[in-house]
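Dear colleague,

Thank you for sharing your sequence with our group. We've completed the structure prediction you requested, and as agreed, I am returning the results in plain text so they can be pasted directly into your records. Please verify that the sequence below matches your submission; if there's any discrepancy, let me know and we will rerun it promptly.
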Amino acid sequence: MAITINIYYSGTNGNARKFADEMLSSGIVDEIRAQKGNLKYEYFLPMNDDETVLLIDSWENQQVLDIHHKSPMMQKIIDLREKYDLSMKVERYVFNESGIPEKDKAFIKE
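Please find the predicted structure tokens below.
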């Protein structure tokens, strides 16, 4: 059962963007993406909020997410989050095994 976590990192003076930039430039993001069970680890910039960065983080299941949470990368993430004084809002989603309902597919262009 795939799990997707949306994390909204917010700060001041562009710190959320600086955090994401350093996560990428330091290689931490590449390390996370290389972990067994990681499906997605991508940052996005909300159009209406210059002080927030959205991370979409997806994992194959809870077991691999637990392993990630115990990995040395978590302390690196925590240290950077503290360096840039960021707050977080977290949303968690579990993949719907049955997929997109037929009635909703009419609104999707592929």
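Summary note from our side: The mean pLDDT is 94.

Kind regards,
the structure core
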